Amino acid sequence: MADILPFHQKRTPMPDREPEPLWREVLGRSLRATREEQGGRLVDIAERAGISPQYLSEIERGRKEPSSEMIAAVTGALGVDLADLLAGIAGDVRQRRGAGPAVVRRPAGPVLMAA
């Protein structure tokens, strides 16, 4: 049988940069900003998407990690193209990084991959 290798990953904080935002937080901010720009009410968008207003609120606040089906339902209810939403999110993340060099993260130890 194969040896079990420990998977230790130490991350050293970068003092001059804030941590990368979580995907669900960036997605939620973008969805909320889009809804507010359109003047849409949370309850109306949630109804069109077929989800509860409470769940949509949690998505917008970055509290829930929505499935791809939920993201598609919300973007459909907002009348937003998913590609445009993702491009906007990528731009927001790049802007938050500022003009500093891009960080390339490579694993320091063994990489576990699913087959």
Provide an overview of this structure.
The structure is a single chain. With 115 residues, this protein is mainly α. 51% of the residues lie in helices and 0% in strands. The protein contains five helices and no strands. The chain has helices spanning 23-38, 42-49, 53-60, 68-78, 82-97. The relative contact order is 0.19. Mean pLDDT is 82; it is low at 99-104.
N to C succession of SSEs: HHHHH
Q: What summary fits the major beta sheet?
A: none
Figure out the total of helices: 5
- Our estimate of the beta-strand percent is under 5%
Instruction: Kindly state the percentage of residues in helix.
Output: 40-55%
Radius of gyration: 18 Å
Termini Cα gap: 18 Å
Number of strands: 0
Query: Residue-averaged pLDDT, rounded?
Result: 82
Describe the global form: globular
SS-based structural class?
mainly alpha
pLDDT under 50 segments (min length 5)? 99-104
